[in-house]
Design a protein that fits this description.
By secondary structure, this protein is an alpha+beta fold. It is 16% helix and 33% strand. Strands 3, 6, 9, 10, 11, 14, 15 and 16 form an eight-stranded mixed β-sheet that branches.
Length: 671
């Protein structure tokens, strides 16, 4: 999350913000039954909890107009929090108001950030790498009332590092961002504005005798949605986001097992487009076909599918968009969910940078920092944050880096916005290095969901050749981020690994949408910690294996040259360039099974060979046995390790592998 709050505020050029005395609180000890985390605060469940209620407006000494009451408890295994967020404008409450919890060790070497939206979406970040190997296991619920919305949270201690957090006192803060109606940002311990300032957090006392071991009973107690229990719904997709020179439009109808069983025998699928109808028998759950669109005039055409028979009839609707050919087209392969740059698959490795013109905000940064980043870092895409891209675009064109402008400066403008959007799109829409448009989903920028809908529709009208997406981070299966799924072409979520990518792609598959996952590679300006090479490689592979189609790092604020990190990105870039055609095929995951749950893997088929791409999610050595489906593979043979040039033999359909800590393996088995 990239908040543009200043830590020092001047009023009329005279008033200097000074930090207040750091507050302290003793946590309450839970006795009896833990509170039910249902978002509705029952007084008897929180009777031993101390209350924090003196929230002040960020960067001031004034009390917040809208009161917040927080209660905190713990037992040996779990931290519990309840909050009442009073709001004088409940009729204006959208899903974008935030409640945030911060932990840090006493020396602020590491910090954790858990955030929750008023609609129940949640996420987490903090010091880079703290949640690298999957979204942490924590529970949070909300509810609405006439004068407030309520929060209940449970965070097991096994999400945190005992190396830093096994101590009697923690640094702690709770913050709230009211963005619906009159904006108001308030905190228990005032950091001066910018929330991510661990050295200005308050003190949480009594954090003794915690157990950081992930017991099964604790995990079940704080159980959230299990993505492995989630089943994809029936859906219908065309193979492209739009068509220009193609003569055919491929389609895919997927039905879930229950729906398919209800169809019965002799069921058919009738697909209607532009007055023509195709009829196909429904003999399998996945049905494919092609519509002839040769000579189809440009325009938007409804596509209707009626599948099944009798009472089991199910209807699907979508649109086919035909556009005149244009240079530098960016399409989406809806089946594999990869971006197509002039017809070729493309996996963005994105670095978000804050610029003023072509300058990084850090005064220590060299004049040509942007050029160095574009040329030497290995990132194939740069995202410009909080800047009009006019000065920076030529630099990226020279270094052949794709560009995603974040239209934050327009969104935050006090002037009429539509003319600014029109001017920007007219200036850059045909640029060969423009990949997509980003509309900022930040609580202190967008006014309302209605505004996001208007911006999205306007941008799709002004530039139909490029995707538009929101940098959403709080993801809930079936709902998406704070803005839902309806105003973004790319599903973008933050700060997790394999589990996060899997959860977001469950939503993305029925929409045929790409998935970008974020990581804070460089850290915030105040707290730099660069990810190690192993962490970085492991993170990229695990998210791509689990459904992500792009990796997004934010935070290149510093003028320092992170050469080791850049070397790692260059290595990843070389490997991903080779594997992009492989990832542009659909998964064959039923063709393999793995004995070790710590190994994440996917199976693809490309150019006459099977590719088994896998990664060890842990920091320990792991052994794994893959069972190969005999319908695809011979009982014995050889698997070639692509980048290390090793050969692994398999027999009786079993492939045995050993992984070093966080190691990725790419194996090719020729058909």
């Amino acid at each position: 999350m990239k908040w543009k709050f200043s830590a020092v505020v001047f009023l009329c050029g005279l008033t200097l913000w000074l930090p207040a005395e750091i507050p302290r609180v003793q946590i309450g000890e839970l006795t009896g039954t833990p509170p039910a985390i249902d978002g509705r605060i029952e007084e008897n469940e929180w009777k031993n909890a101390p209350q924090l209620s003196d929230f002040i407006l960020s960067g001031t000494s004034r009390k917040a107009e809208n009161r917040t009451e927080v209660r905190i408890l713990k037992d040996r295994h779990v931290f519990y929090l309840a909050a009442k967020c009073f709001d004088s404008e409940m009729d204006k409450l959208s899903g974008k108001d935030w409640f945030e919890v911060f932990f840090a060790d006493p020396d602020t070497r590491i910090y954790y950030h858990f955030y929750l939206f008023s609609n129940g979406g949640k996420g987490q970040d903090g010091s880079p790498g703290v949640f690298l190997f999957g979204a942490p296991h924590w529970q949070a619920k909300t509810s609405r009332h006439a004068d407030r919305w309520e929060v209940e949270i449970a965070i097991p201690f096994f999400n945190l590092s005992p190396q830093y957090m096994d101590t009697a006192n923690w640094r702690f803060n709770v913050c709230r961002q009211k963005v619906s109606g009159k904006k108001e940002n308030s905190q228990w311990s005032d950091t001066g504005g910018y929330f991510h300032m661990p050295e200005r957090f308050g003190i949480l006392e009594g954090m003794k005798n915690m157990d950081f071991v992930p017991y099964v009973a604790v995990s079940q107690q704080i159980r959230e949605e299990r993505t492995e229990d989630y089943r994809l719904p029936s859906y219908f997709l065309l193979d492209r986001s739009y068509y220009t020179t193609e003569t055919g439009a491929e389609f895919k109808l997927c039905t879930d097992a229950e729906t398919f069983a209800a169809f019965g025998k002799n069921a058919t699928a009738e697909i209607a487009l532009n007055g023509k109808t195709l009829s196909l028998p429904l003999k399998e759950r996945v049905v494919r076909g092609t519509f002839d669109i040769l000579g189809l005039a440009c325009g938007t055409y409804p596509v209707t599918v009626r599948a099944g028979s009798g009472k089991g009839l199910k209807e699907f609707k979508t649109e086919l968009i035909k556009l005149p050919p244009a240079e530098n087209e960016i399409k989406i392969n809806r089946f594999t969910r990869l971006l197509l740059k002039n017809g070729k698959p493309f996996i963005p490795l994105i670095c978000e940078i804050m610029l003023q013109g072509t300058r990084l905000p850090d005064p220590a940064a060299p004049e040509n920092a942007l050029e160095l980043l574009a040329r030497n870092s290995g990132f194939n895409t740069l995202c410009f944050w909080w800047t009009h891209p006019a000065d920076a675009m030529p630099v990226c064109a020279k270094e052949n880096a794709m560009v995603i402008p974040a239209l934050v400066d327009i969104m935050a403008s006090k002037q009429p916005k539509e003319p600014q959007y029109r001017k920007t799109v007219a200036e850059f829409s045909g640029h060969p290095n423009l990949l997509a448009w980003l509309i900022s989903d930040e609580g202190n920028i967008g006014k309302s969901e209605k505004e996001y809908i208007q911006i999205y529709r306007l941008m799709k009208t002004l530039d139909p050749y490029r995707p538009v997406f929101r940098n959403e981070s709080g993801w809930t299966i079936g709902y998406g981020g704070p803005g839902g799924l309806g105003t973004t072409d790319i599903f973008c979520g933050g700060y997790g690994g394999a589990k996060s990518a899997h959860a977001i792609s469950l939503d993305a598959v029925p929409h045929g949408a790409p998935v970008f996952l974020l990581s804070a590679a460089f850290g915030i300006p105040e707290k730099h910690r660069y990810l190690s090479a192993k962490e970085t490689i492991c993170w990229v592979y695990q998210i791509l294996i689990n459904g992500a189609t792009g990796a997004f790092w934010w935070g290149a604020h510093s003028g320092q040259q992170p050469i080791p990190f850049w070397e790692t990105i260059r290595q990843i870039r070389r490997e991903i360039d080779i594997l992009t055609p492989v990832f542009n095929t659909e998964t064959l995951d039923k063709g393999i099974s793995c004995s070790n749950g710590n190994i994440s893997a996917t199976l693809r088929f490309h150019d006459g060979a099977y590719y088994l791409i896998s990664v060890n999610l842990t920091e320990k050595q792991q052994d794994a046995v893959f069972r190969l489906d005999h319908r695809l593979f011979p009982e014995k043979g050889n698997a070639e390790e692509l980048f290390e040039k090793q050969i692994h033999s398999f027999a009786e359909s079993l492939l045995k592998l050993q992984y070093q800590a966080q190691e990725r393996k790419v194996l090719r088995i020729r058909k």
